Amino acid sequence: MFTGYLGLLDLPWWGYVLATLGLTHITIAAVTIYLHRYSAHRALDLHPVVSHFFRFWLWCTTGMTTKAWTAIHRKHHAKCETVEDPHSPQIFGIKKLLMEGAELYRVEGANRETLENYGHGTPDDWLERHVYGKHDRIGIGSMLVLDVIVFGPIGITIWAVQMMWIPFLAAGVINGIGHYMGYRNFQSEDASTNVVPWGILIGGEELHNNHHAYATSAKLSNRWYEFDIGWLYIRILETLGLATVKKIAPKLRLSTGKTSCDFDTLQAVITHRYDVVTRYARSLRDTCAAEMQALKARAVSVGSVDSARLRRWLNIDAAALPATERAERAEVISHSKVLSTVYTMRDELAAVWQRSTATKEQLVHKLEDWCHRAENSGIAPLQEFSKRLRCYA
Predict the structure, then answer these.
(1) Which domain holds residue 221?
(2) Cα–Cα dist 47/237, whole Å
(3) Per-residue pLDDT at 150
(4) Is 219 found in the same domain as 285?
(5) What are the helix (H) ranges across the chain?
(6) Would the CA dihedral through 335, 336, 341, 346 be positive or negative?
(7) Which residues contact 157 (CB under 8 A, 6 or more apart)?
(8) pTM of the model
């Protein structure tokens, strides 16, 4: 059938590799900019020409509809790491996410309740109802034909790579590894991780923990050494008048002259609560480790608890721990005034931003009282942490 036909482009082997990477990268950009940051989280606005190009491209390369992807992702955030999460490796296991992540999407995409509850605000025009939503195979088939016309027989291989790119990297790696292993800038209430600090291959989605900490941010990088190529593309589109950024993660501001908590302090602590927990854990981990050694030196029985377990307890609310771990924590801190102070005050600090019927005035008073007790605790790292917390503005 293809005898003698080399396609419209006759490239060296590395040219086909670069072409494949370029085509798959457009798909990644469409997912992270259009489906994720624009449709699911409304972190930016896109010009109709740009949004429809991405919509068309995804129809040709994935067969996914905007409504299904958006609804599934929103449900993931709403039910993260629970049995209702459509794709949590904490529930399904990392192997299933890596090997069958796309299948989990298809199953949840057939759930009408999910689409109705979480798919609001997505396209519902004639094209969506009569073309993109009904004839996904036509889009995928059209891409196959186009690849063969442009690249010749090797276009079949290029097309196959295109078809596997999103199911493996997005549905498998990000939803799997991004909730299983990596590093965490923020102690969010889920298991999200940053896979690597350089978000290039998957358009910035590698910075998954940053995203879960500030879900409505159009920019996924947060630390100076992190790079989000999706954000670079958004800035280019914005410069061209084709995008408008609505929100990015707030930057922490400190007012070094503050000596007491006020409404600004309260708001800043609530806004940056994941960062607060992270800084608290980092500030007190050495204190806890030293106290654990002191307990062992006094031959106090601490069972199987070690420094790693103490660090874990600093990062997780007591209510989120399994019952056995809560009992272990209570037993260990009962032997140490220092540990009791550190973990009790950690729980009290978290209570400031958790659901409460308290007024703002009461919460400010509660935060001020917390800082006062921290600074009179006799624990130097806790005292320094409290003094810095007062400066939040």
Answers:
(1) 13-245
(2) 9
(3) 94
(4) no
(5) 13-29, 48-61, 66-78, 89-92, 94-109, 112-118, 126-127, 136-151, 154-168, 175-176, 208-213, 229-239, 263-271, 273-297, 307-315, 323-333, 337-353, 360-375, 380-390
(6) negative
(7) none
(8) 0.87
